[in-house]
Specification:
The chain contains 7 helices and 5 strands, in the order αβαβααβαβαβα. With 215 residues, the chain is of the alpha/beta class. It has a domain of 150 residues: Rossmann fold (3-Layer(aba) Sandwich), CATH 3.40.50. Strands 3-2-1-4-5 form a 5-stranded parallel beta sheet, with helices on both faces. The radius of gyration is 24 Å and the shape is elongated. It starts with a helix and ends in a 9-residue tail after the last helix. Pfam families: DUF218. This is YdcF family protein. It comes from Ferruginivarius sediminum.
């Protein structure tokens, strides 16, 4: 009986040790993930670094408030000669986009192009790279939300290494970037974007660059 009790005790200790090791590893991974999240939030742009710089084109990624209107403002201010809006709903044309944005069609319609194929940030980069290549552009100003900029720049730089990309962040009012921990909605959004960013980093690291990307 004593031997059986001793064996059970040893097995119990081994199981406890294994569980403790797994918990410790999980804790380290969680701590690393959260430290990375704090780094990610801290690196988000807080202002437009080069607001007056001119580029060949302006590219707007749909999906958030204020992006298209800001892109049209930049085009009207002659920050570039052309504007490309990526990820537009199928069936929406330039005239409709300008009407919704409260712009007169005759003012800017000649200089706006739309992309209807993209449904993800990776898709935005693919269809923008094709448009940039077809037009022979070598620089662009990228307009998207500040929290979305790191992932967008990662995707765009990968597919357009020979193109100079100037980030132009937009700051949606509903995203409390500076004190996100006080706002559950902002916390949830930033955590989700950080996770998507990590997934994009891994995918970029393990998949080859498409053969038809800019070089």
């Amino acid at each position: 009986m004593a031997g059986g009790a001793s064996g059970s005790l040893r097995r119990g200790r081994r199981r406890f040790g294994l569980l403790a090791a797994l918990l410790a590893c999980g804790g380290l991974l969680l701590a690393g993930w959260f430290a990375g999240f704090l780094w990610f939030v801290g690196k988000l742009p807080g202002e437009v670094a080069e607001p007056l710089r001119r580029t060949d084109a302006i590219v707007v990624l749909t999906g958030g408030s204020g992006r298209v209107r800001r892109g049209l403002d930049l085009l009207a201010d002659k920050r570039a000669a052309k504007l490309f809006v990526s990820g537009v709903y199928r069936g929406v044309d330039v005239a409709e986009l300008l009407r919704v944005s409260q712009r007169a069609p005759e003012e800017l319609s000649c200089c706006v192009a739309l992309g209807h194929e993209a449904e993800t940030t990776h898709g935005n980069a693919i269809e923008t790279a094709r448009w940039v290549r077809d037009n022979g552009f070598t620089s662009l100003r990228l307009v998207t939300a500040a929290y979305h900029m790191p992932r967008s720049m990662l995707e765009f730089r990968r597919l357009m290494p020979g193109v100079e990309i100037v980030p132009h962040p937009v700051f949606p009012e509903h995203v409390k970037q500076n004190d996100w921990w006080r706002w559950p909605g902002s916390t949830y959004l930033l955590l989700g974007e950080y996770t998507k960013y990590l997934v994009a980093v891994v995918r970029v690291a393990v998949t080859p660059v498409p053969a038809d990307s800019d070089s």
